[in-house]
Write a structure and sequence with these properties.
Shape: elongated
Number of strands: 17
Number of helices: 7
CATH class of the largest domain: Mainly Beta
CATH topology of the largest domain: Tumour Suppressor Smad4
Strand content: 35-45%
Radius of gyration: 20 Å
Oligomer: single chain
Largest sheet: 11 strands, mixed
Order of helices and strands: EHEHHEHEEHEEEEEEHEEEEEEH
Helix content: 10-25%
Length: 280
């Protein structure tokens, strides 16, 4: 593992006591010989000179530390993966499968990672979605969904070039194993162990009750063609995307880039499920 010289700090601006958390993290990193590079809003929070735009952080650091929730981490995860920069998410909220390191375990997790403990680094598969000339990378999911006042979407689904279904639904979720505990889970999809070479196709409220969520090989090519609807959007990780037109065709494949996600040495994936889903 390469030596960590610079760590980028990304925050949820309105998290409680975020200024205190930032100062504590910077002090700890300095004690380990690691320089802190702050995004603009983080620098402003603690009265430092202007920082960098969030999207520029992964280009100039060896590690990204996210303080906030899963949405904050998703905003930078795809950029970190493209630059092969590991990400550690420190949870400042309640439910977070990606920002899984509790604040009181931040230092021991950083200590373990900086000492080269590769057991706490999980390789997370990502998806690449293409629509027209636009290409998107995502960690959680690619979602086709309807606008607030639109009727049900009619679309066709293809796997490896073969049409497998033509149906009406409120939408469609194509998720990674990491994203299987997000929107897909709420739509009735299965939980997939993070390092399995697979992804999930989950319909949102399908008009055909026999069409159930499917787990397919990560080597497959999934395409969804919009056949008819009034107002439909392609959404990437719940944050980016574009409006779709009739007969638009989205192509989704497993991406060659993977995200290195850092976990706490005190817990594993099943501990996380017990904690976050209240399995007890």
């Amino acid at each position: 593992m390469k030596k960590i010289k610079r760590a980028g700090l990304v925050i949820k601006p309105h998290a409680d006591h975020i200024d205190q958390v930032l100062r504590e993290a910077i002090e700890f990193l300095e004690s380990k010989g690691v320089e802190s590079i702050l995004e603009d809003v983080a620098a402003h929070k603690i009265g430092q000179p202007p920082g960098l735009p969030r999207e520029s952080i992964p280009q100039v650091v060896d590690l990204v530390i996210v303080f906030g929730g899963d949405g904050t981490l998703l905003s930078v995860a795809h950029l970190a993966a493209l630059h092969d920069v590991p990400v550690m998410g420190v949870n400042l909220g309640r439910l977070g499968f990606l920002t899984e390191v509790p604040l009181d375990e931040m230092k021991i997790t950083l200590e373990a990672f900086l000492q080269g403990d590769t057991r706490i680094v999980s390789q997370r598969k990502m998806l690449s979605a293409s629509l027209g000339e636009n290409q998107y990378y995502c960690l959680n999911d690619v979602v086709i969904n309807k606008g607030a006042l639109a009727r049900m979407i009619r679309f066709a689904i293809y796997i490896d070039g073969k049409q497998i279904a033509c149906l009406r639904a409120d939408g469609l979720i194509i998720s990674t194993p990491t994203g299987s505990t997000a929107y897909s889970l709420a739509a009735g999809g299965p939980i997939i162990y993070p390092n399995l070479p697979a992804f999930v196709i989950s319909p949102i409220c399908p008009h055909t009750l026999s069409f159930r969520p499917m787990v397919i090989s990560s080597g497959s090519v999934v395409e969804a063609q919009l056949l008819a609807s009034e107002e439909v959007y392609l959404t990437i990780d719940g944050q980016r995307g574009q409006q779709m037109k009739s007969h638009d065709r989205v192509k989704v494949v497993c991406c060659e880039h993977e995200l290195k996600l850092i976990s706490s040495p005190r817990r594993n994936f099943f501990d996380l499920l017990q904690e976050k889903l209240g399995w007890g």
